[in-house]
């Protein structure tokens, strides 16, 4: 097994030898195992392992990033020399640089976050059995004409980060997943849908047969779809896809966008952006959640906080560079891959304050559109103008009437955020815990 800590230290030593004033390095080891079945038979099986390394160097206020999948000593030395040469030719960036030692995270015991399943790596046969079970369950649903295939997989990622400012920490994360697709109907009336589940601990996964039945039931429910009427109606975003709405909010409060002046929320700090009963929280220390972390990609500590409290926007997602540009304190939200510069990114979030069920929102909306799938997107980051393709179900008198196979929904995100009505039906294990969301008065372009 590759010693990632030693590899990161070797990158830093090579950077110093090449003439860098400062540097940070990361080494990533990935293992993945996946099995796909179709018609009950094995269609594809793959096991992949690899190591990737990344080095970011600074010469004064000039920086550069390089990466490689070759970890030999010669490659490490060559990477450092190339990175320093690139940095010397780069323009000066007054906001670039590592964290001060006093800013660095001290709590590095990631074990309490339970991000690594201690169970042994699954055998391919056991993954195949799960996929077969899911596919068989999908085919058992009346109206399903064929399965689109099923898959099961396992992954393990180990990351170590080190920097010349003294930071050094590692993390191990696992994931297990099951997915299934189903097809109902034939010819031009054919409809598809799917279900999947992914968890850090394999023991927490939904039962494979339940995933298959969900896929089949969803596909059959889509049969006979047609376009909805055109006009302004309430739109209910099902919990399966409601995270896209909070995703647009997170993009709008990303510090990099704010520093560029390219966000429609750039002037809304300290002002209401959501209804007064709703709050958007970060939860970086939640157990068994994929977005959990004790420190960010720049070694800064993470902490729970409210991005929006009682409807009022409290702050931005900031890495070091965007915080320096804005004259603010960094928030520990930096993310980075081996070949990338750090940038702000949200980890675990929760939209809090909703109540009731999806059925309650259906009743309240009366007549409108229930969206279960979104297709493409046209979002203007400067104005918040929103337009997306969608499918789902038409609702009349608070009850699902018939499936909708194609339409466009449009509005403006400022008004959409302000008018959110949230249920309390979010799945608690997801990184983004967001319930079903009802928005009144969106434009629907259908028949």
Structure description:
The protein is of the alpha+beta class and 447 residues long. 22% of the residues lie in helices and 37% in strands. The protein has nine helices and 19 strands. The strands form four sheets. Strands 3-2-1-4-5-6 form a six-stranded antiparallel β-sheet. The protein has a five-stranded mixed beta barrel with strand order 7-14-15-16-19. Helix 1 crosses helix 2 and helix 3 runs parallel beside helix 4. It is globular and about 70 Å long. The N and C termini lie far apart (59 Å).
Number of strands: 19
Order of helices and strands: HEEEHHEEEHEHHEEEHEEEHEEEHEEE
Distance between the termini: 59 Å
Could you give a short account of the major beta sheet? Answer: 6 strands, antiparallel
Q: What would you say about this model in short?
A:
With 447 residues, the chain is of the alpha+beta class.
What is the topological layout?
Blueprint: H1 4-18, E1 22-38, E2 41-59, E3 62-68, H2 73-89, H3 124-139, E4 144-163, E5 168-184, E6 191-199, H4 208-221, E7 231-237, H5 243-252, H6 255-260, E8 279-282, E9 305-309, E10 312-313, H7 320-326, E11 334-335, E12 343-344, E13 349-352, H8 358-365, E14 368-379, E15 385-396, E16 399-412, H9 413-418, E17 421-422, E18 432-433, E19 437-445
Parallel strand pairs: 7-14, 13-18
Antiparallel strand pairs: 1-2, 1-4, 2-3, 4-5, 5-6, 7-19, 8-9, 8-13, 9-10, 11-12, 14-15, 15-16, 16-19, 17-19
């Amino acid at each position: 097994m590759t010693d990632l800590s030693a590899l990161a230290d070797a990158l830093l030593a090579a950077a110093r030898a090449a003439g860098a004033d400062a540097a940070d390095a990361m080494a990533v080891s990935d293992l993945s195992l996946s099995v796909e079945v179709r018609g009950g038979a094995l269609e594809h099986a793959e096991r992949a392992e690899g190591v990737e390394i990344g080095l970011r160097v600074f010469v004064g206020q000039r920086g550069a990033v390089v990466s490689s999948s070759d970890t030999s000593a010669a490659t490490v030395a060559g990477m450092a020399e190339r990175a320093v040469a690139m940095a010397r030719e780069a323009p000066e960036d007054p906001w670039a640089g590592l964290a001060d030692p006093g800013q660095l995270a001290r709590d590095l015991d990631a074990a309490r976050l339970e991000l690594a399943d201690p169970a042994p790596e699954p055998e391919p046969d056991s993954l195949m059995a799960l996929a077969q079970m899911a596919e068989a369950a999908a085919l058992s649903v009346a109206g399903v004409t064929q399965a689109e295939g099923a898959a099961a997989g396992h992954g393990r990622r180990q990351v170590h980060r080190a920097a010349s400012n003294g930071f050094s920490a590692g993390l191990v994360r696992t994931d297990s997943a099951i997915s299934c697709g189903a097809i109902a109907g034939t010819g031009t009336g054919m409809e598809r849908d799917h279900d999947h589940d992914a968890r850090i601990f394999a023991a927490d996964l939904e039962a494979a047969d339940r995933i298959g039945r969900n896929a089949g039931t969803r596909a059959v429910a889509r049969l006979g779809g047609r376009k909805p009427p055109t006009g302004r109606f309430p739109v209910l975003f099902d919990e399966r896809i409601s995270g896209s709405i909070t995703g647009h909010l997170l993009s709008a409060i990303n510090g990099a966008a704010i520093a560029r002046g390219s966000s429609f929320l750039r002037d809304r700090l300290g002002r209401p952006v959501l209804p007064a009963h709703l709050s958007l929280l970060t939860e970086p220390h939640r157990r068994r959640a994929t977005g959990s972390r004790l420190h960010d990609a720049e070694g800064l500590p993470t902490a729970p906080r409210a991005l929006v409290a009682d409807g009022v926007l409290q702050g931005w997602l900031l890495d070091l560079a965007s915080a320096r540009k804005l004259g603010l304190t960094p928030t520990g939200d930096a993310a980075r891959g081996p070949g990338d510069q750090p940038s702000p990114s949200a980890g675990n979030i929760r939209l809090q304050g909703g109540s009731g069920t999806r059925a309650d929102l259906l009743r309240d909306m009366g007549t409108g559109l229930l969206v279960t799938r979104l297709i493409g997107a046209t979002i203007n980051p400067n104005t918040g103008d929103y337009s997306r393709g969608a499918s789902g179900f038409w609702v009349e008198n608070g009850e699902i009437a018939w499936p909708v196979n194609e339409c466009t929904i449009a509005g403006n995100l400022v008004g959409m955020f302000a008018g959110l009505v949230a249920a309390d039906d979010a799945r608690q294990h997801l990184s983004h815990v967001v319930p079903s969301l009802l928005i009144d008065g969106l434009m629907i372009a259908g028949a």
